[in-house]
Amino acid sequence: MSTIKIGVLTASDRASAGVYDDLSGPAIVETLKRYLKSEWQPVYRLISDDRPTIERELIQLIDGEGCCLVVTTGGTGPAPRDVTPEATEAVCDKLLPGFGELMRSVSLRYVPTAILSRQTAGTRGRGLIINLPGKPKSIRECLEAVFPAVPYCIDLIGGPYLEVDPAVIQAFRPRS
Ligand SMILES: Nc1ncnc2c1ncn2[C@@H]1O[C@H](COP(=O)(O)OP(=O)(O)OP(=O)(O)O)[C@@H](O)[C@H]1O
Ligand SMILES: Nc1nc2c(c(=O)[nH]1)N[C@H]1C(S)=C(S)[C@@H](COP(=O)(O)O)O[C@H]1N2
């Protein structure tokens, strides 16, 4: 069986220029390592907040690398250079607005500025794309909320069976 691949894409002008280290991409990898019992391999990309580049990388991660899941971080806010949701929507066949709704709602427990994130999710073929905000601490806050629905979503789109560690996070599969 082929290895399960998960894309981790950081969109940040400053992190990609080396002004600061990207802490959010590695935080996604670490969080997923804790959640998943299935063998998997991260495919990491660090790019600037440039819409054509984000779209190209999302397409490459799913169509080229065969990632069943791509988690992005950064570029979800209202600033002029924040375009990750637009790039996500442009490459997806179907949008899943419930992901953004839930993450914003849960994030409000942590910061009143949670409503500034336009983060969304959607599917492209057999891949699921989920946007997270740029702040390193938001990674865990957001993934914890939506991850229980992720394995079943990937089942439904014909991706690999993701097994989670039930001591860390519960996956909900209504039909199993
Ligand atoms: N990938 C990241 N790694 C580490 N820290 C980050 C990252 N993204 C954001 N931050 C931190 O959160 C703060 C606010 O995030 P902001 O949304 O302005 O970042 P950004 O959009 O990635 O930055 P840029 O404007 O350079 O693209 C940043 O000043 C930085 O301290
Ligand atoms: N869980 C969580 N969500 C959060 C935050 C956070 O710290 N934790 N920061 C908010 C802030 S301050 C902004 S501006 C938006 C967008 O961030 P981004 O442009 O880095 O994606 O996410 C929001 N969502």
Summary?
The protein is of the alpha/beta class. Helix content is 38%, strand content 19%. A six-stranded mixed sheet has the order 2-1-3-6-5-4, sandwiched between helices.
General description of the model:
It is an enzyme of class 2 (transferase). Residues 7-153 form the MoaB/Mog domain. This protein is an alpha/beta fold and 176 residues long. The chain has one domain: Molybdenum Cofactor Biosythetic Enzyme, Chain A (3-Layer(aba) Sandwich), CATH 3.40.980. 38% of the residues lie in helices and 19% in strands. It has seven helices and six strands. It has a six-stranded mixed sheet with strand order 2-1-3-6-5-4, sandwiched between helices. Strand 5 and strand 6 (127-132) form a beta hairpin. Helix 2 runs parallel beside helix 6 (136-146), helix 3 (51-64) crosses helix 4 (84-91) and helix 5 packs across helix 6. The longest helix has 14 residues, at 51-64. The radius of gyration is 15 Å and the shape is globular. The mean pLDDT is 97. The ligand Nc1nc2c(c(=O)[nH]1)N[C@H]1C(S)=C(S)[C@@H](COP(=O)(O)O)O[C@H]1N2 binds at residues 74-77, 82, 107, 110-111, 113-114, 116-117, 133-135, 137-138, 141-142. Residues 74-77, 82, 107, 110-111, 113-114, 116-117, 133-135, 137-138, 141-142 line the site of ligand MTE.
